Amino acid sequence: EDAEKGGYEHFMLKEIHETPRVIEDTLSEYLDDEITIDASFAFGVSEIVFVACGTSYHACLIGKYFIEKLADISAKVEYASEFIYHQPPTGRTLVISITQSGETADTLEAMRIAKKRGAKVLTITNVLGSTATRIADFVLYTRAGPEISVAATKSFIAQLVVLYLITLKLSHIPRSEKVELLKELRLLPEVVKRILDSKEEIERISKLLAKYENLIYIGREVGGPVALEGALKMKEVSYIHAEGYPAGELKHGPFALLGEKTPVVASLVRDHTYEIMLNNIKEVKARDSIVVVVADEEDKEVEKYADFVIRVPKTNPIFSAVTHSVALQLLAYYTARERGCEIDKPRNLAKSVTVE
Ligand code: G6P
pLDDT tens digits, residue range 140-182? Predict the structure, then answer.
C-alpha cells in the first residue's frame, strides 16, 4: 500500500496532488480547439434537474450556478435520496446525475425513476462501465483515475471541469468571452499547482483549527456550495463538527454560535459578492470568532479583517470554485493529520454507498 501512495503519507494528499493532471486529462477528453462534447442531450430541454449524494451533490449545486448564469437554462438540484418524493420531471427535463463511483444506490434509483417519468438522463461519472453508465441515456466521464481515499477530492474537481465544459458548450455568451474563459480553463492545472506549492500557510492554520470542535464555513453565490463542501471535507476527515452556510444565513441562527470557540472559514470571491462578504466577515470578527479567509493573492483589503488569509491565484470568479475548494481540501487534510485521524478511511464512512 505504501508503494501505491507514491511517497505521500496518505492517499488523500496524493490524490489532491494529482488534481492538476486530472484537470488536464479531463480537459483533453472533451476539449480540442473547441469543446467536443456532443450536446444532443440538451435538445428541446427546458429545465435541468441535478441529482447526486455527498460531495457530488455539492458539484451539482455549483453546476446549477454555472448553467443558470452562463447557459441561461433553469436548473434545480435534488439530493438523490429525496428526488423520488418530488414532482415528476416532464419529457423536457434533462436529469443530470453526478456520481464518482457510478454505483451510489440512491443516485441510481433517482436515475431509474427519472427515466420512468420520461426525462432524459445524463450521467457524469468517473468509472467506465459502472451501473450509472448503463442506466443513463448519455454519459460524460471525469478522468480522475482511481480514488482510494473515502473523502472525494480530485474527482470533485474533475466533476467541476466537466460542468464548466457543458456550461460553455450550451452557453450563448459572446464568442470572445467564451474564448477567454476557455483560455483560463486551460490554465487551471498550473493555477492548482501553485496552490499545492504554497501550502505552508494552510498547514500553519490547520494546527490552530485542530484545537477546536466546531467550525462554520461561509460563502456567497458559488462560494455557498464551496463552503458546504469545505465543511463536509473537514467533518469527514478531522471529525470536527463543521457546518457550511450561505453567508446571508448566518444571521438566521448560526450567529448564536459565534465566539471564541467557533472559528469561521470564509470563501471570499472578487465579484459582485465581494463587498457584502467582506461585511459578513466584519460581523463575524465583531463577535470574537477567529476568521480564516480564502482570498485571491491580490486582495489587500481582506487582511484588515481576517486573522488568517489563505491565498489562491486570481482567476475569473467562476473558477474560484476550483481554487477555493483545493485550498479547503488541504485545510481539511492537514487539520485531520494534526488530530491524528485515520484520514483515508474515516470511521463509519464508505467510499461508495450501495444501499439506499
Ligand atoms: C460516499 C462517499 C463520498 C461521496 C458520496 C457520493 O458517501 O464517502 O465521498 O461523495 O458517497 O458518491 P458518488 O460515487 O455517487 O459520487
Answer: 999 999 999 999 999 999 999 999 999 999 999 999 999 999 9
pTM of this structure? 0.97
- Indicate if ligand 1 lies below 6 Å from the C-beta of 346: no
Counted residue by residue, the chain has a size of 356
The answer to whether 48 touches 170, Cβ cutoff 8 Å, is no
pLDDT digits (tens, 9 = 90+) for 312-347: 999 999 999 999 999 999 999 999 999 999 999 999
Please report the ipTM that was assigned to this predicted complex. Answer: 0.98
* Pairwise CA distance, residues 146 & 127, whole Å: 8
Cα 52 to averaged position of ligand 1 atoms, centre (Å): 9
- Please give the span between the terminal C-alpha atoms of the chain, in angstroms, as a whole number: 31
Residues with catalytic annotation?
351
345 CB under 6 A from ligand 1? no
**Is the distance from CB of 47 to CB of 67 less than 8 angstroms?**
no
Cα–Cα distance between 218 and 291 in angstroms, integer? 11
Give the mutation target among 83, 325, 351, 354 for probing the ligand 1 site: most ligand atoms within 8 A of CB. Answer: 351
Q: Is 107 in the pocket of ligand 1 (CB under 6 A)?
A: yes
